[in-house]
Design goal:
- The chain is of the alpha/beta class.
- The protein is built from 6 helices and 13 strands.
- Strands 2-1-3-4-13-12-11 form a 7-stranded mixed sheet, with helices on both faces. A 4-stranded mixed sheet has the order 6-5-7-10, covered by helices on one side.
- The protein is globular.
- The two termini are 16 Å apart.
């Protein structure tokens, strides 16, 4: 019997990560909650959670040397999964309450306040995954749990038009207007919703990710 894939949930100060740890364990992973650099670099899969404001999360990530560690993993083709603000920080920048902060710059785009009559977007929403999605294989028509006031409302795949670079696969949802619900891009994937709070559909998604490590 093969060993379970090793997954590190990055413990950089983001709150409320225990539910993600438990959900990943149920998905078949051997999970550690740590910011130990050696563990972050060597694990089969790294999960970057995120709760709170974009700029604060970026400051916490920098204090844990996470931008460099994430870059090194991705350069080596090693899987990374971002959740909630963990998706948002993968983009170029975020603007909240008039304050703009630089993101990790893995994808083009800016995180801005949702354009909807009611913000935050809190609750269950359907998503529109693209053809060939690995994360949503078998759960294309399910609903997932969101809680956020900000999101990416432009298409990160739109600038990948040189014919040489494979564009990211983008999943969309809608709250007032369309926003990015998930992105799959080689070893880097991320969801705006919380798979660990999304019942059977979220559990299926995490199993899909863990099984591909």
């Amino acid at each position: 019997m093969s060993a379970s894939p090793s997954v590190v949930v990055l413990d950089y100060g983001s709150g409320n990560v225990r539910s993600a740890v438990r959900a990943l364990e149920r998905a078949g992973a051997d999970v550690s909650l740590t910011k130990d650099k050696r563990a972050v670099e060597s694990c089969d899969g790294l999960v970057v959670p995120g709760v709170g404001a974009f700029a604060a999360v970026m400051d916490q990530l920098k204090s844990a040397d996470a931008p460099r560690l994430i870059d090194r993993r991705l350069a080596g083709g090693r899987p990374v999964l971002g959740i909630c603000v963990g998706l948002q920080v993968m983009f170029e920048s975020g603007t909240e309450h008039g304050v703009r902060a630089e993101g990790l710059g893995q994808w083009p785009g800016e995180v801005t306040r949702l354009t909807a009559p009611v913000v935050p977007h809190m609750g269950w929403s359907t998503v529109r995954p693209p053809e060939g999605s690995v994360l949503f294989d078998g759960i294309e028509d399910e609903r997932f749990y969101f809680v956020h006031s900000y999101g990416v409302q432009t298409d990160p795949a739109a600038s990948f038009d040189d014919g040489r670079t494979v564009p990211p696969a983008v999943t969309w949802a809608e709250h007032g207007s369309p926003f990015v619900a998930a992105v799959e891009n080689g070893p880097l994937a991320a969801t705006q919703f919380h798979p660990e709070k999304s019942g059977d559909a979220g559990a299926h998604l995490l199993r899909s990710w863990v099984s591909n490590l």
